[in-house]
Amino acid sequence: MAAPWQPLLQWWFGSAERPEEVAAQQGKLWFGKRDSQDAEARERFGDLVDQALAGGLAEWAQSPQGWLALILLLDQLPRMVYRDTPKAYAGDRRAQGLVIDGLAQGHYLLLLPLQKAFVLLVLEHAEDLALQNRSVTLHQKLLPNQLGLEHALFADFLDYAEKHQRIIERFGRFPHRNEVLGRESTAEELAFLRQPGSRF
Fold first, then answer.
1. Does residue 104 form part of some domain?
2. Mean pLDDT of the region 21-47
3. Which residues touch 50 (CB under 8 Å, ≥6 apart)?
4. Rounded to an integer, what distance in angstroms lies between the CA atom of residue 137 and that of residue 139?
5. 71: domain range?
6. Which tens digit of pLDDT belongs to each residue from 102-156?
7. Averaged over 78-89, what is the pLDDT?
8. Count of CB atoms situated within 10 Å of the CB of 156
């Protein structure tokens, strides 16, 4: 009998085997902003997202794959299901706690490199410099083990982690979230938001 988190992991990571092939197959799902993808996420996994945001599905975190799926339900999926609303970020704090716990318990070490990248993305999303620093450090440790096209892919992941880190180091928060979260932007943040690459 398939684990309850398996359909989500299959949908998110696809059927390819090599990381660069998975990224080519799934990249538009991961990083594209399409109404059709958001609708599919809502239809297929919206109930699970809501359960996770309400504090449920804690038992999933007992295994590495379930832990990974629960992290996706709290970090990635709300950004699709509840895009452009405050609820898009409602699972971030719980996801961060789960990542810290799973790193300590060794769940992280049992994942594939590309799966690890999505665990680290939780830390990359944090408006907390210590977690940003940890994200960059773990990305740096992940990179040397990748070769060829895989190395280029993970170098891009590290580059984005460093960009996120610099924003939090400068502002202490992500200015592009201010409008959705009802936060008042400073003049410096507004000037920053007019620059290319200021939004993720």
1. yes
2. 93
3. none
4. 5
5. 6-193
6. 999 999 999 999 999 999 999 999 999 999 999 999 999 999 988 888 999 999 9
7. 97
8. 12
Backbone angles phi, psi at 111, to 5 degrees: -95, 160
Please report, rounded to a whole number, the percentage of residues in the chain having pLDDT higher than 70.
100
The closest alpha carbon to 95, from 63, 58, 129, 130, belongs to 58
Q: Is residue 72 part of a domain?
A: yes
- Buried b / exposed e over 25-58, threshold 16 CB at 10 Å, is ebeebbeeeeeeebeebbeebbebbeebbeeebe
- Provide the CATH number for the domain around residue 20: 1.25.40.10
Query: In 88-123, which positions are buried (b, 16+ CB within 10 angstroms) versus exposed (e)?
Result: bbbbbebbbebbeebbeeebbeebeebbbbbbbbbb
Any domain includes 178? yes
